[in-house]
From TrEMBL:
Residues 3-137 form the DUF4439 domain. This is Uncharacterized protein DUF4439. It holds the Pfam family DUF4439. InterPro entries: DUF4439, Ferritin-like, Ferritin-like_SF. It comes from Glycomyces artemisiae. It comes from the Bacteria.
Amino acid sequence: MTAIDTGLAAEYAAIYAYGAAAVHLDGDPRSQAEALESEHRSRRDVLLDHYAAAGADAPPPESAYDVGVIGDAAAAQDLLTTVEESVAATWRAGLAATDPDERQLCLDMYSAAAVALARWRLAVGQPVADPWPGRPE
């Protein structure tokens, strides 16, 4: 499994989580959730185009993902924070790829994921400053 395979899996999971969680949100968090879900879909599409250009089959999404119980807005916000942190960590790990093209794609995706994480944190009133999003504690 390549870093791009792992990143695509993270994007699939994020799309699923946003679909499940956004219905519990309103106001700015809801608007940001809708925008970020769209961005995850766009990143997924870029990755699918990458596979097609390479003449390779992209790994398919899972039929479902474990998002736990989302009973209210607070649970939805916590889930989406975890999702954005996970996506950033996944793309950050991809920076260790040895293939320059793969590393560049991971860097582009990591940059987008870091911005998305900051925007989400801002929307839900969490501290935004994080010099290395996705870095293990």
